[in-house]
Structure formats: structure tokens, C-alpha cells
């Protein structure tokens, strides 16, 4: 018979809560809260509706970083176009040529290798 200790129960509950939170649904407004402005919250960027925790890249995505414009947003179109222009920061892939879709796929693969997926963007 296995004895359940307070420590093992706490560890189990902590792991369970972590796993639940690893697949959150975000609206666009909710995602915006994870733009790096609040240092107590992680920094998130979405690609093709999948939300990545990019907090380890705080120097890039946090305040003053070279990619701060993507933080708290779905940056799919901008990444596909290799653009930092505000008008390109969008989830819309409409009208993108195949070459730019390929660029976006490469970005998605890089993000998957470097950052955990924490959820998805919902309408």
C-alpha cells in the first residue's frame, strides 16, 4: 500500500494545476495582458493562434526589446512578411504568397523548439 504524504499530494496538485494552465484559451484582449508591461506576468506571442511563452526572450520581447511589438499579440502575418510594422501585426494570413507562408512555418518551428506552448487564441 502506497502512503500518500502531504508533500506528495502538494506535488501532485501543483503538477496538475501546471498542466491545466499549460493549455489556456486566450481572447485577443486577454493575450494583450501578456505583453511584458507587467513584470509579474509572462510574455506571450501567438503564431497561427498558438500562444508561446517567450519570457526567456525578455530582452527581445519585453519593454525596450527589438521585438516588443509582437508581445501580447498574434504576430503571424508580421513574421511571415518579416515585418515589424504595426499594420502587419495580425493573425490574418489572407493573401500571403506561398513563400511567406513558408517563412511563417520556419518561425513556428523555431518557436516550438525554443518556447513552450501555453494555449491558443480563440474568437
Automatic annotation (TrEMBL):
Which SMART domains does UniProt cross-reference here?
Answer: Cyt-b5
Quote the InterPro entries the UniProt record gives: Cyt_B5-like_heme/steroid-bd, Cyt_B5-like_heme/steroid_sf, MAPR/NEUFC/NENF-like
| GO CC terms | endomembrane system; membrane
Coiled coil, from the record: none
**Record keywords:** Lipid-binding, Receptor, Steroid-binding
Give yes or no: UniProt keyword Ligase: no
Q: Where is the Cytochrome b5 heme-binding domain?
A: 26-122
Write one Gene Ontology MF term: steroid binding
The yes or no answer to whether the keyword Zinc is present is no
Q: Which family does it belong to?
A: Belongs to the cytochrome b5 family. MAPR subfamily.
What is the protein name for this chain?
MEMBRANE-ASSOCIATED PROGESTERONE RECEPTOR COMPONENT-RELATED
Amino acid at each position: 500500500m502506497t502512503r500518500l504524504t502531504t508533500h506528495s499530494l502538494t506535488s501532485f496538485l501543483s503538477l496538475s494545476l501546471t498542466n491545466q494552465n499549460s493549455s489556456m484559451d486566450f481572447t485577443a484582449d486577454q493575450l494583450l495582458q501578456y505583453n511584458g508591461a507587467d513584470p509579474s506576468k509572462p510574455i506571450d506571442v501567438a503564431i497561427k493562434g498558438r500562444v508561446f511563452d517567450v519570457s526567456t526572450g525578455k530582452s527581445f520581447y519585453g519593454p525596450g526589446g527589438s521585438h516588443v511589438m509582437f508581445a501580447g499579440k498574434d504576430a503571424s502575418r508580421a513574421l511571415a512578411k518579416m515585418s515589424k510594422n504595426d499594420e502587419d501585426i495580425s493573425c490574418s494570413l489572407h493573401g500571403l504568397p506561398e513563400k511567406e507562408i513558408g517563412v511563417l512555418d520556419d518561425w513556428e518551428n523555431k518557436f516550438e523548439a525554443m518556447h513552450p506552448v501555453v494555449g491558443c487564441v480563440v474568437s
